[in-house]
Every structure is written in structure tokens, then in C-alpha cells.
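Comment thread on ticket #2218

A.B. wrote:
> Attaching the input chain for the structure job we discussed in standup.
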Amino acid sequence: MADPVAFERGIDPLLEYLKNEREFDFTGYKRSTVERRVAKRMEEVGLADPLEYIDYLTVHPDEFESLFNTILINVTSFFRDAAAWDYLATEIVPRLTDAKGEDAPIRVWNAGCATGEEPLTLAMVLVRALGADAYERRVKIYATDVDEEALAVARMAIYPAKALEAVPEQLRREFFERHDQRYAFRKDSRRPVIFGRNDLVQDAPISRVDLLLCRNTLMYFNVETQSRILQRFHFALNPGGFLFVGKSEMLVTHSDLFVPVSLKQRVFTKVLGASPRDRLMAGTARGDAVALATGETSRLLRESALEATPVAQLVLDPDGTLLLANQRARKLLGIGVGDLGRPIQDLEASYRPIELRSHLDELYATSRPRTLPPVTLGDGTGGRRTVEVHVDPLRSGTEIIGASVTYVDLTRQTAIQEELERSRRELGNAYEELQTTVEELETTNEELQSTVEELETTNEELQSTNEELETMNEELQSGNEELETINDALRERTLELNEANALTEAILASMGIAIVVVDGQQQVRIWNRQAEQLWGTRADEAVGEHVLNLDIGMPLDRLGQPIRETLAGATDDGRVVVNATDRRGRAFKCRVTLMPLAQRGSEPTGVIVLMERAAPG
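C.D. wrote:
> Ran it. Output below, let me know if you need it in another format.
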């Protein structure tokens, strides 16, 4: 179990080491994901401190490959999220081909292609849409990834049968060729797919592409890195190009770069930047001022209209004298009835809430109306109001006869705008948190899927080992049965041997004379009962001893030479008569007969010694 303090202290030096030594920059990846995957790999090699793991990587360079395979989760498959691929094939590809024309080239970039299932899926879709000849002539699919080992698998384009489970049977027959238990993607359809290494964080994007696939890759990066990558994607796409991302990647906070074509299927199109011709200045020509009406009725109407205007308004002559101020202006700016006819510079309204004199001078000099930035001022009741000030010329024909200053109340609009902006920020933050959560969940799911695949592999290995053990068990059982058969045969032979020994003992016992059998080394092998009775030596005392070393009442040295001659192959039975003493101490003449012990036609392997009392005389 890793020490959290040691791990936190050493993770940054480890990431910096990977960046310097192998040019893998993981600082743009989501920190929690990188830390979790690094900790998993360190646990597998039995280390808890990232600083110790740096030393381990220095001593074991092959460990880099295992670490990168752990961090870069290559979870992919053919036709992953089938509904999204159906939408791409039926809606997006026809729009793309129609926009490009019949002979124009089609460039596609698949970023984060892993082991190649995704670009080959797209190849099948495009072959079906364009036809094989047009596909090979017009299409280039650039499939890139940062993992060289995954790219090596992708370039081979050979997959096990399990990887093709999501491929419809008809497409499997059309695009794959079987080799033993694996399937190879057809070379003519594989040729327009170009695999290469590209780091989305550091390397330049592939440009002028019509369709860009980056599915379930962005979710591994933090928000800042995602933003940089999406800006590169925006640059890479042609006008009208499409971006196809994974189901956990919504791009809600990047509406300035991409707008959804189908948010459900995660297909977006590029937002075009504003060009000079789109930024035409909008203006309105103000008509000539209405000629001054004459008569008291007209004057009263004008004054009543001015008073009823929903905005505060001041009217000034060219000398800067305040001629008119409606009710809203008087209330907002604190102008009294006695202020009418006074120069504006003598009034507080000339500098509150904004400096008017300079803008009036510019108005008379240029004859152009001006709109000043919104400002805030008190409304006389303790509240605050936000107003936008408009300074407009008043004309009689082409002559400027005065100026109108209006104060448009933007307090409500400003509050609504601020509330809207706050809501947008909160919504954006909520979307980012939601997207981060979804991406974390997807990352966890892919890690779990990777772990499940590892467990399935381990299970298959265990099953294979179990089958081998069962085979060995069957072999052992067969060997045991053979041993039992041999044991039964041996038991039968033992019984036969025991019967033969019993028969031999019975024969030797029934002959009535002492019989001794010695082997080629003159050691006693048989000592029958009559020999025991004659000499008083038991069989267990005699068997195994040299015959000439026995302590019996007979001069055995007289037998040495005859025994050797018999073993040497003498043809006549040797007979010797010696003086002997039996077990009771009685002297007698003992006749000893020596016969060779040999099978027919072979050399003697022993001697049979017959000892009996000789008849007196």
C-alpha cells in the first residue's frame, strides 16, 4: 500500500522524469487518473514510493512499456456505440460526400486510434458509402496515437475472433480474411489507412481534414488541455467539417468552436470565425429634425410629449444653455425648474454622472451622435441606477441648432444581464463538473473493462492449466492402473514363488540328509532342517555366511578345494569322507557329496553340498 505523503511528494518528479527521458508529457492528463494508474503499476512491481520507482525505471528500461500500457488505456472495439456509427453512416457521411463532390479527395483524421479497430470501422463505412474504387482513389484516413505498441498492433490489422463479435457477419465476410484462429483486414481496404504517432498535447495537428474522430480520448485530459486540443481540432477541420467524439464528451463549454449536429450521437461541426465582410458597421441615418411647430397647441404637445418620454432627456442650445429637462431628467439629475435657462456648466448634471462638456464640444465639431458607456449614479431615493448616455445633434435642415442628451435606464437590463451571466457561469461550471464526472465514470469503466479483460485472460490461463492438470491426472490414473496390474501380476508371481519355495523346502526336508547350497562366492544360500539337526546350527545363523567360516563339527577346510573345483566346472561329483562330530558330540564318518548347481548348458552358479553319515566298515 503506497504512503500518500511519499506518493504525493514523488509523483511530480516521476512525471517530469517521463517527460525528459521518453518525451511523454502526462501533465496535461487528469491528475487523478494518472495517479491511480501509476499507483496500480507500482503495486504490481512491489514499490510504494515514486522516487524509488524512478530508480527502478532507470535499472529496468523495459518497465517503461508496461507503465505506458497501464496509463494509456487502449480500450476500443469495432463499431463501439453502434447507434452513433449508424448515425454517422446514414446522416454525416452522405452530407460530407455531397458537399465534397464526386472526385474531390476526402481526408479523415482519427486521433487516439489505439489498436486500430476504430479507423478500420470507418474504412468499412466509407467503402460502403463510396464504393471500393472511389474509396481507394479519394480517401485518406490518418490514424494516430501516442502509444507505439498499440500502433504496431494497428499496422498489422490482425485480430482474434473475439474482437470481431460486434462486426456484422456480412461485413466480416467482405472485409476480413481468416488465418488460422485470427482475422486479417483486407489489404486493398487497409491501404488508404495511414497509422502514425501523434501526441495531441505536443505535436502539430493534421490539417485540412473533412472528418475528425476523437472518441473517448479527451476525457483523459484536464480542462485546460482539452481546450488546447479542441482549438487544434478547430484549426484542423475544413469549413463544414465534422467532429465525432465519444459518448462522455459533450463540448458544451466550447460552443465558440463547435456546435452540435447531433448532441445525442456526439457529432459536432466547426464554427466559422467572423470574416471582415461579416463585420459590416451597422448604422442608422437620422432624418432631418422635424420643423418647429408654431402655435400654443403645438408647443404644449411637444412639452407634454417630452414630459411623457420614458427616458430622462435634456435639450441644450449651441451655447450650452439648458432649455428643456423632462420630469424623469429632473428627478434623476436633481434639476429644478429654476435651472432651466442656465448654462449646463453651472449645473451638477454637467459632470454627474458623466462629464458632458467635452462630448458636447466633440458633437458640435463632428456633427456625429455619440453613445457613452453605461455609468452608475444615485436615483435620489437611496437606490442606484445604471444609465447609458446618448448625445445627439438636433438639426434644422443641415444646421445644428442644439443637442439632446438622453439617459436610458439600463438598471433592469443590467441586473438581468448580470443574473444571466451568473447563471451561465454556474451552468457552465455545472456542465464542466458533470462532464468531468461523466469522463471519470467512463475512465473508471474502461479501467474496469481492462481489468475484466485481464481477469478473463488469467481465467483462460487457469482453465488451460486446469485442463493440463486434468490430463496429468488422467495420465497418473492410467499409470496407477498399470501399476495395479503389475502389482497383481507380482502378487501372483509371489504366490507362485512362495509355493515353489514351500515345495523346495518340502523336498529338501523329505530327502532325509543334510543339504547345503552355496553360491559362486561360497556363501550359504540354503541350510535345510537336517543340517540344523546334524550340526546344531540354525538356518538364520548359517545363511549368508561363507561356508568355510561356519563353526560346525566338521573340518570344512577339507571342502575348500572340492568346492572350487566344482564351481570351476568339474564334471564328476566330488565325494569326500571326513571325521566329524554331530551336535551331541558323537563322532562319526561324514560322507560329503558335491554337485554343481547350474541350469542346462550354463556355467555352475553354485554348489549343492550333501552331508550324511557313512556306514561303518
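A.B. wrote:
> Thanks. Noting for the ticket: The two ends are 106 Å apart (CA to CA).
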